[in-house]
Amino acid sequence: MRARKMWAWILTGMLFILALITIIPFVWMFISSFAPNSEIVKVSGGIFPKPTTLSNYQGIQEKFDFLRLFLNSLFVSSFKTVVIIYTSAALGYVFSKMRFRGRNLIFGIVLSTMMVPWAVTIIPQYEMMTKFGWLDTYKALLAPGLVNAFGVFLFRQSIGGIPDEIVEAAKLDGAGDAVIFHRIILPMSRNSISALAIFTFLWNWEDYLWPFLMITDEKKQLLSVGLKMFSGRYGTDYGGLFAATSIAIIPVLVVYVVFQKQFIAGVASGSGK
């Protein structure tokens, strides 16, 4: 028992140190967002800036239409998160509870797509968007990736843990697959939904390369690309960049706070089996 307690304390200490290493850069960025550029670029100086200023936050909108790009990113990330969760849950239900020829083969093909680096698919997808005439439109941002192999795998594992007797009992009562999926499977998959919601929203919120390639109209651009406006030819407005980035982190934190209780349980249910 003493050895277990000792290892528990050691593990807790290591996790605390790792948490500090992870959090300190964000804390420094937030504090520096209240400092003028002359203070930020100083080699020596304290953690807290002297003097403090709100001009970095007040001047964000002057660099570019921050609010519009923020709403664009929020719309694209939220839309893709909802759709990916639904398609992943639906396909997870098909692969885990339905019996048909070639099921394992098709599922293996879906999993194999996870092994293909995303960078390899950029050129083919770009050519597809060009042929469809979707360049510089929201379709180019919304359509790709609406079916996610990782999400399908996660839901297939979690839904597979739901007893078949529940599904069979619903069918005996006259429920079809659509009713079973929406009224039984989805409510029992809250943990997986929460885990995938956090991952998907984060991936889409921080995506830079794809919107940079697809969108040229500044009004349709996403916030991740718009932040480069703070980097000019002769220098970088670090204060404004830190202020805009601090605001850009808020939606990710909100999503995590909302789904944090089911997050660890969802990851465990998808990987434990």
TrEMBL record:
Residues 70-259 form the ABC transmembrane type-1 domain. It is a multi-pass membrane protein. InterPro entries: MetI-like (IPR000515), MetI-like_sf (IPR035906). Pfam families: BPD_transp_1 (PF00528). Keywords: Cell membrane, Membrane, Transmembrane, Transmembrane helix, Transport. The chain crosses the membrane at residues 7-31, 69-93, 105-126, 138-155, 238-259. CDD domains: TM_PBP2. This is Carbohydrate ABC transporter permease.
